[in-house]
Amino acid sequence: MDSQLLYQKDPSKLEFEAIVIEKLILPDGRLGVVLDTTYFYPTGGGQEHDKGELGSVRVVDVFKDEQNLRVVHVVEGELGLGPVQAHIDPERRLRHMQHHTAQHLLTQCILQQTGFETVSANINGYSPSTLDIVMPMASQAPQISKSDLEAAELFANQLIYENRNVRAYFVSPEELQSIPLRRPPKVTENIRIVEIEDFDYSPCGGTHVNHTGSIGLVKVLKTERQNDKLRVYFIAGLQAMQVFRQMYDSLNVLANQMSTSWQDIPAVISKQVELIGMLQKDLQAHRLESIKNEALGLVAGSELRGNIKLVRASFEDRPVAELRLLAEELKKKTDMVAFLASYDGQKVSLLVISGEGSGRDARQLLTKQLTPLNGRGGGDAKLAQGGGAATEEQYHLFLQHLDLD
Q1: Which of 39, 71, 130, 186 meets the CB 3.0–4.6 Å disulfide criterion with 3?
Q2: C-alpha to C-alpha distance for 186 and 201, rounded to whole angstroms
Q3: Is-contact 360 337, C-beta < 8 A?
Q4: Based on the domain organization, do 143 and 215 belong to the same domain?
């Protein structure tokens, strides 16, 4: 049975009486009901569905069964056949109306400002909505300048301040010929036009505000490339107010911590980033100097094995990156063989360094030492690195056997 889609006639109506004429068990196990008439908006046209209640039962999803021409209301709980009082979540409906009308407005503003056409949109009143734009006859995503995007945004907000009428109406194919549509309709009957007074005319089955002033404001957040399209993220209405409130509160917290005004935060952060960069350079220089001194200490305490100086050092959970810096310093000693081991409580990391004059291959020494742990590794003749799992007892035994032979 074809459900009467009354939201198309009066999107402001949020409470109504209806009759449950059919109950369904959906393929995913959820419960669904069909009403004889409904003001609930089903997901479609890039806009998400309404939520609300039927009696005391929550409506969590609404979709249109195109095959059977009916709107299915997915409910959480049992609902019998017969009359029912329906209630639509007013804030969710308003958010979607604000964003959908804002999308029409912004789409036309971008078209007039840049010539870029919108090919798809996704309306979400609780997170940024998006519209995908393309340059006609182009094979790549369009490039849009910051100034052009700001001009389109400003244009859209000027039209919001003008509080232009927004109305929806059905037209025949013949009447359609006299309307300056932004894009052609996808259907050939029941063609519904959403008109922003003297500005935009678009086929649409969604819910919209009655005046542009009800959008409040629209703000473009960012753009990103999507293959041959450019995706524009924007917020409007209640969502924009919520985002700006959160941003302002966060900026004020930062401003108080920095003892400055929120307007000066970017400049203060830039100075701090510059200072941090200088401190990081100094820290790196001190770190390298410390590594060099540590290497000298290890060499001074090395064991003499024939004509080879042997270094054996173990560390507790020392980052491998630091061990590699230490290894690079020890590599400079041609008559040196060094074992650098670190243990984090579960895994052994081992670096083997063989100087050119030692006559030893670091890879062979690494393989020999890791064999009892079933460990793995790799490298070259001068520096090899690997590891394996070990208990604490196995690790201590491993250290006792670290040797040239």
Answers
A1: 71
A2: 14
A3: yes
A4: yes
